[in-house]
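Input sequence (151 aa), recorded before submission:
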Amino acid sequence: MGDGSVQDNIWPLPKFYFSVKWGSDTAVNFQEVTGLETETQIIEYRHGNSKTFSPIKMPGLAKVGNVTMKKGIFVNDNKFWDWYDKIKLNTIARITVIVSLLDQTGAPKMTWTLNNAWPTKITGTDLKSDGNEVAVESIEIAYETIAIAAA
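Predicted structure, token format:
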């Protein structure tokens, strides 16, 4: 118990050590990922001869939100626009995006797999002549289904 190995299983993982696999790219370095969520819509039903005056609630369709990812702008790095530029009329380049929360050794302990993902919005950095922050751009990604797995 003195080496801390027993306690490794009871502490929550910090959220700052994560990786993103983007289609065929092995990893893209992001500063922030938000919107990893899913919910089930509620269907309310009450039959006509029910003696209770409240509806029955049943699970309906699953619904996922969009994910927003932010990263620094690097020279000659146009990944966001290259992907976004592939949207033509009804043609979309869909990919699988895998977000992994890592432990101290770099091994994934929690993964969110976004299936059939495509870019819906790109936001460039704000520009300030008296600022000293890093230029950060963001991309909003729509996807169809999410799979969540713990290692």
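Checked by second reader. Strands lie at 18-22, 25-28, 32-34, 38-45, 56-64, 67-72, 95-102, 108-123, 136-142, 145-150.
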